[in-house]
Amino acid sequence: MGSPDSTGQCQSSCGTEGGGHSDWAGTSLSMLKVWGLPLAAFVAGFLVADLPRTILWTAALCIAGGACVLNAYRCKRLHCYFSGPYFLLAAVVVLLAHAGVMPVPVSVWLGLGIAVGGVAVYYLPEYVWGRYRQGTGIVLASTITCPNCGKQSSHTMPTDSCQFFMACPHCDELLRPKAGDCCVFCSYGTVKCPSKQ
Three-state SS for 127? Predict the structure, then answer.
């Protein structure tokens, strides 16, 4: 699990240690691990002939699209609901273009169009609607019971990070997650954090 920042929020993982429900698109490093190879294969496709380009682009788009669909399922990352189907559809377009079914050659222009569309489906949904999907039964209100004093306090959980630690407003005890939990809400709250819902 990542280390907490000054607000007590852990930015690198919103799930269990080892990646249980963590957002693969949550940090640059995790994004590189999941989408780095498909991106490299897609870029390499610009440098080769038509058939190898078709193979590289189709494989890269299928892997990237599949990873996005899985990430949307795992943590409800909003752009993944758009980018997953987009990349999978783009893979079909590349195959159909190569087969001559579509009047579009598998060219650098097609690749640039796919890349520009990919950037748009990555940034625009989250710019408009936020980072994580809402309205899916996710509850953001949770009441934490302090294990030290036993008093309760109500809080609104963050949707884009985990609350790694929190000071009890009654006794000032610094609460940390129990072993195996990602945040104080999963350990002491009445409702688990959004990534676990």
Answer: helix
